[in-house]
Amino acid sequence: MRGSHNTRRTGLAVLVLVSLLTVAIVTGSASAATSCSEIPTVYGIPPWGFHTGSYTGESSFAKGHGNINLQANTVSGVICQQDRPGVIIMTVEHHLVYHSHYAVMWGYPGNIMKIIVRVKSSTDPRCKVGTRGRATLFASYNDVRSDSVQFFFPAACRDQDHLYHGQQVNNQVPPL
Fold first, then answer.
1. I need a labelling partner for 153 at 20 to 30 A (CA). Which of 93, 128, 133, 166 fits?
2. Residues 48/68, Cβ–Cβ less than 8 Å
3. The model's pTM
4. Does residue 165 surpass a pLDDT of 90?
């Protein structure tokens, strides 16, 4: 009888330990962004959005989406970029710096928008939260796939300056 009581105690202790470890793992993984997975991929046609290709096997990638009001010159949204120095998640500041339906980049016509971003969270030790940067999004049209996304940051975040260009980039920039 004494043996079965100890067995039950041991079983209960193991159950409690497993439960505590599970809670610790789930809470720990939810408390810090370790990749762009916390930014959902938007399917369909968002007001604006992009992704720079495959998220696996790439040395860097980015994705983002949000809303835009061309008449009011306002924009909002979220962007994430992941590369070797780390992951940065950015919010889009509300003023739309520039937009055009008559842009030409890479020798092709398309839509362009220029926005200001602010680092919201960062695992890159040199790129601090609150740092402002710029992004240029270009979406070619007429069945040409020469879209691009380019980030520009000040010296402290210079590692996060990237140009994504080519057929793997999928960009939705609204026309006028």
1. 166
2. yes
3. 0.77
4. yes
Residue type, 1: M
The answer to whether 116 touches 129, Cβ cutoff 8 Å, is: no
Query: What pLDDT, in 10s, does the model give residues 70-129?
Result: 999 999 999 999 998 899 999 999 999 999 999 999 999 999 999 999 999 999 999 999
Residue 52 region, left (φ>0) first, then alpha (ψ -120 to 50), else beta?
Answer: alpha
Do residues 159 and 125 touch, judged by C-beta distance below 8 A? no
Assign 2 to helix, strand or coil: helix
User: 115 and 137 in contact (C-beta within 8 Å)?
Assistant: yes
Give buried/exposed letters for 76-100 (b at 16+ CB in 10 A, else e).
Answer: bbbbbbbbebbbbbbbbbeebeebe
